[in-house]
Amino acid sequence: MTRYVLVRVVNGLFVLWAALTASFLVLHLVPGDPVAVMLRGAGGEGTAVDPAAADELRAELGLDQPVYRQYLEFVGDAARGEFGTSFRSGDEVTAVLGGALPATLELAGAALLLTLVVGVAAAVAASLLPTAPLRSAVLSSTVVGNALPSFWTGIILLQVFSFGLGWFPAFGAGDLSQLVLPAITLALPGIGLLTQVLGRGLRAALAEPYVRTARAKGASRARAVFVHALRNAAIPAMTLFGLMIGGIVAGAVVTETVFAREGVGRLTAEAIGTHDFPVIRALVFLAGALYVVVNLAVDLIYPRVDPRIVLRSA
C-alpha cells in the first residue's frame, strides 16, 4: 500500500508539472499582449498605448526575459506555492484565489451533495421497481438533465422560479436561497450520469448467481439490492463521481456567470479575457491538484468497498 501511494504521488507530481508546462506554453502562444490590456484598462481596444510605458511595465513583470528563463522561474515559484501577482489587480495571486474559492467551494459542495443523493436514490429506486418498463422509465428520465446545456438550464430555471414564480433570488450569493438554483443547474448533468452508471451496475449485480441464490433463499428484492448488489455496483459509480468533482468545479465557470456569482468560475473567465497569466496558471495548478488528490482518494477507497481489490504499483 505504501509503495502504491508513493508511486501515485510521483505520478501526480508529473501530471502537475505537465499541466503547468502546457499552460505556460499555450499562454505564450495565444495572440494578445497582457501589458497592452493592462495599460488600456477601461479604455478598451481603441485606447493608445505608450511604448515607453509598455516596455517599463513589461520589464517590471519580467515579461522581457527569455521564455526559458520565465519558465524556470515560474516552475520554481509554483513548487513553492507562489504564483506572483495578478496582472489585472496587482494583488497576490494566492490572495485573489483565496477570495474566490469559498463561494465556489460552497456551490460545488452543494452540487456534489445533490448529485450524490439524487443520483444514488434514483438508481436504487429504479432497481427496486417491480417491472422492467418502470425501471427503464426512471433511468431514462435522468438523461434529460445530462442532455441539456448548463447555461440553457440555468436560464430556464431563472425564468421559471425567479422571474416567474419568485421563489428564489435570481442573482448573487451569501444566502442559502441564492444557492438552490445554481446548485441544481450544476448538479443536473452529474445526476443523469451517476444514475445511469449505478443503475446499470445494480442491474448487472442483481443478475449475478450469488444474488439469485440469496433471492432463492427468501431475501427480498430490497435486501438483495442494499446488502448484496449495491457494494459491487458502486465501484464504477465511485470512479465516475471522482471525475465529476473536477467537472463540477470546471462547470462553475458557466454557472457562476449565468447567476452572477463571485467565485473561481468568474475569476477564470475574467483572467482569460484580460490575459492575466499568473491567475490562469494558478487556476490550472489548482485544477490539476484537485484531480490528482481526488483520484488518489478514490483509489484508496476501492479496497474498503470491495476487499477483493488489491492495490499494487505497476
UniProtKB/TrEMBL annotation:
A single cellular component GO annotation: plasma membrane
PROSITE patterns: ABC_TM1
Name of the protein described by the UniProt record: ABC transporter permease
Cross-referenced PANTHER family: DIPEPTIDE TRANSPORT SYSTEM PERMEASE PROTEIN DPPB-RELATED (PTHR43163)
Subcellular location: Cell membrane
Organism annotation: Streptomyces sedi
Domain annotation ABC transmembrane type-1: ranges: 101-302
Pfam families per UniProt: BPD_transp_1, BPD_transp_1_N
